[in-house]
Amino acid sequence: MRVTIYGCGYVGLVTGACLAHVGNRVLMVDVDAERVARLRRGELPIYEPGLDDLVAEAAAGGRIAFTTDADEAVAHAEVQFIAVGTPPDEDGSADLRHVLEVARTIAERMDGYRLIVNKSTVPVGTADRVRETVREVLAARGLELDFDVISNPEFLKEGAAVEDFMKPDRIIVGCEREDSAERMRELYAPFNRNHDRLLVMDTRSAELTKYAANAMLATKISFMNELANLAERVGADIERVRVGIGSDPRIGYHFIYPGCGYGGSCFPKDVKALIRTAEEAGHDARILRAVDGVNERQKRRLFEKIRDHFGGRLAGRTLALWGLAFKPNTDDMREAPSRTLMEALWAAGARVRAHDPVAMAEARRLYGGRDDLVLCADPMEALEGADALAVVTEWHLFRSPDFDAVKARLRRPVIFDGRNLYDPARLAALGFTYYGIGRGTGARSA
Ligand SMILES: NC(=O)C1=CN([C@@H]2O[C@H](COP(=O)(O)OP(=O)(O)OC[C@H]3O[C@@H](n4cnc5c(N)ncnc54)[C@H](O)[C@@H]3O)[C@@H](O)[C@H]2O)C=CC1
Ligand SMILES: O=C(O)[C@H]1O[C@H](OP(=O)(O)OP(=O)(O)OC[C@H]2O[C@@H](n3ccc(=O)[nH]c3=O)[C@H](O)[C@@H]2O)[C@H](O)[C@@H](O)[C@@H]1O
What we know:
CATH class of the largest domain: Alpha Beta
Bound molecules: 1,4-dihydronicotinamide adenine dinucleotide, uridine-5'-diphosphate-glucuronic acid
Number of domains: 2
């Protein structure tokens, strides 16, 4: 099948590469000319495991191409995917500017039937707005052409995006026309072989399903962070509690890891957008407001622990930071807890020496030129002369370091473990002062 995809970001590129991998002819479109030029040279603008090989293979086979040319994009295929960003607006609602811009781009150029498939995360009712936009533009052109707008939200996780797309838990298709559902069944058949995971529903339910999934996962995390804070006060270890409840299959082990808060381009923005949707619908989303509030507070927990350890005197201190990306296996730093921590440390007059296995270029783009940030090529180098180590992202590389070497490089053996990677008793035995998240009274072992 021929497919056009607007948006060469995480979702667009992964969708395009995977669809091309199974034989489709994909044209990728972006308004960012530099991004398109890089992709044409074979350079990926994002880090995502396995994606570079897929794109290179598809490009060599002539099954994927990149353009900024809207005429070419609309002419290329009947199936037109929207995978552009939907960043938060000032009031927390999703900004649909880019989505509606693509709708207009298509409507201004289409000369026959088009199936517009929205993959961006958008509030309930957006498919109707896209439909309305296309209809208005066609009317202004004096044309009456057949088209459909459907919802096909994406559930991939960064860092495992290719795997998630290739082996989806479910494929949600929100549409009202059987021929549109049939087109999606055909397109997704290679990813849907052994078990039928394609669920067809009405567009509004599909749009809400996406927010419901992210909000439920965010709720699990904030729930655990709430309990971690309680565990600290009552002298319990949240890691034991986690294993204790995860063993109940009704609860499960997934997404109950406490930590220094959830980040990324989606949970924070999608929870806020859903709260906004509820407000607009006259409903007070109390659980969601709590989920968001608990997370905002949790992202400051590491800073509070560091500040309290140093008696509030952080000016002139240096903190080593392991992990800048919002989670492992990505270079994405959007809403990353590392940023909340670094910005709070800088505001308090402290300096940061940081290392991340892949997000160094992104950190340089965001914070390059600051004299209170040193980006170190190696995790051990980040420790040199630092007053303490804070671990923010659970990269494998940080799980089992040579603690003797860590101790030798730090000015004082103090670790703030924002992901509960280490065993407090072991670190105490090695002579470290250890702070985790929710690990007993004061979450401290010394
Ligand atoms: N990042 C993720 O893990 C996931 C994201 N989503 C959703 O998918 C959507 C896209 O997210 P990302 O891929 O992360 O965004 P991104 O920010 O990585 O990429 C978006 C791309 O769209 C391009 N763009 C903007 N306007 C355009 C236009 N008019 N025509 C063509 N290209 C245009 C931008 O230049 C950019 O390259 C969002 O709604 C997001 O919430 C859904 C599931 C997972
Ligand atoms: O809509 C989206 O964009 C995507 O959002 C999330 O994916 P992603 O943000 O890439 O990453 P996650 O693995 O979900 O992690 C999100 C944040 O939660 C944190 N987290 C995750 C799990 C956990 O137990 N505890 C925890 O603090 C992570 O550290 C990270 O900061 C969802 O998992 C995807 O299904 C969804 O498609």
